[in-house]
Design brief:
By secondary structure, the chain is of the alpha/beta class. It is 49% helix and 9% strand. The longest helix is centred in the first third of the chain and has 28 residues.
Amino acid sequence: MKKNLLLLLFTLVFLFILGEVGARLWAKFKNPVSIVPDKVRYTYYPYLPYVPTPNYRDATKSIYHNSRGFRNSYEFINPKPANVYRIVCLGGSTTYSDYDNASNQEIWTGRLEYYLNKSSSFIKFEVINASAHNYTAYLNLIDYLTRVRDLQVNMVILYQGVNDLYFNGFDNVNFAHSNAFVSFNPDHVNKIYSRMNHNFFLKHSELLKRMYAMIFLHGLTLNEMATKNVHYFSANNINNIKNDSLITFSKAIEGFIGLSHVDNFQLVLLSQAYQYDKLEKAVLKYNPSFTKQTTEDLINETKRIRDKMEIIAKKNKIPFLDMNEILKQNQELFYKNPLDEIHFSKKGEDYFALDLYDFIKPLIRSSKDLN
């Protein structure tokens, strides 16, 4: 009996060590951010589904939020100093850019700030990253009004397209609030995160940490917080997109145009860049029932929303840049995940920023704020 117990104990210890080695190898090669932060990245806000948590830090120290919740490593002085030209970039995850483990300085908003200041002797450029995962243009508009407006920005850059397809899908401005996101309790999640970092056993065992996360953090990632009304969950969603007049998207852009006159800022519109080969693979991977025609319909819709943005831009004489044309389907510029068709590699972040820098330079030179 005693011998059997010892054998069982030895087997359990051996399996635990084996699992621990496997978990650590997985953390090292597959998921380098193996220690979660003490706070969940997004938190409650009365006017939006959620906002980036102020003073957030990730485990690798590559992602920082300042005290306003912007993805910037420094604070913004208010009122704005006379020698500062302030740009705010609004969008979804392709503006927040937490892919390829890029730091605040390596993402396209950080690179844009770098190139602007590199070529300037007298003016200091500040590029605010006020984006958030899954935000639509309409949510960006609310975000500008409630979190950005008092910073007296000189330019607003809106980079959108994909989320307005997935998260609208109906001619209803409340859709993103009532149908796209599930509610969650940030304080409860923060306690779970903190326990993972500070409990002795969880802190020192990658295997226990991952088992704990599977049990207690299931359903609390951003994609899991989005309901099945969005993304690739059914062909019905594609039909909703095709039947959408894009009124919510249009009204959001028109709202920014109106505010640009009231708040005296230069508006710049950027349409979404895609890697269409990967888009097709991603759609078919997540939806085996989808056909070639379904994926072609979705690709056509991405082009329709781009055309809608361009039409509004031309009608109102707003600078417009089609980033799909800029990136030219170059796979090296997109994140290496074979099923990720919209997020950039670090090389892509820099390429994006440099082209955008060349595009906005003439707009800044002609700005009344510098004359």
